[in-house]
Amino acid sequence: SKKAGKVKQPEQAISFGPQVKPGELVFGVAHIYASKNDTFIHVTDLTGRETIVRVTGGMKVKTDRDEPSAYAALLACQDVAARCKELGITALHIKIRAMGGTRQKTFGAGGQASLRALARAGMRIGRIEDVTPIPTDTTRRRGGRRGRRL
């Protein structure tokens, strides 16, 4: 009958991401936002329009106080690197950012740790850029005329 005539076609391996020669680097951009409350690792394509993977420190740990920690950033970066490799991205340009503006301009504990973790996970690192927003002239900073008194 009908079933006997069907010929099974060999299954083709499904590959995501761009078609490239073996050994060629495929770049993405890792936007790392390390505030004092959390660390975001957000990987996009080179234009920044297409999100590839986004993991935060808070997605990896249970307690609120551990979200900005170096350990949470490390766990998040391992997830990010695994997903990037799945999609064929082998190298990353890094844009690291602190809170900036009228708030602090140094990034939190997860910033440095996430950079190291990405490199340790086998991702090749391209350019590293600090994209913390620095105001040229700004609104008044919090704390009042006499500053924060401790």
Describe the model.
The chain is α/β, with parallel strands linked by helices and 150 residues long. The relative contact order is 0.18. It starts with 26 loop residues before the first strand and ends in a 20-residue tail after the last strand. Helix 1 packs parallel to helix 2. It is built from 2 helices and 5 strands. The mean pLDDT is 91.
Helix/strand structural class = alpha/beta
Shape: elongated
Q: What is the radius of gyration computed over CA atoms, rounded to a whole number of angstroms? A: 21 Å
Low-confidence regions: none
Kindly estimate the percentage of residues that lie in beta strands according to DSSP.
15-25%
Largest sheet: 5 strands, mixed
Total number of helices? 2
Characterize the quaternary organization of these chains. Answer: single chain
- Residue share in helices? 10-25%
Question: How much is the average pLDDT?
Answer: 91
Kindly report the spatial arrangement of strands forming the biggest sheet: 3-2-1-4-5
- Please tally the β strands and state the result: 5
Q: What is the end-to-end distance?
A: 87 Å
SSE series: EEEHEHE
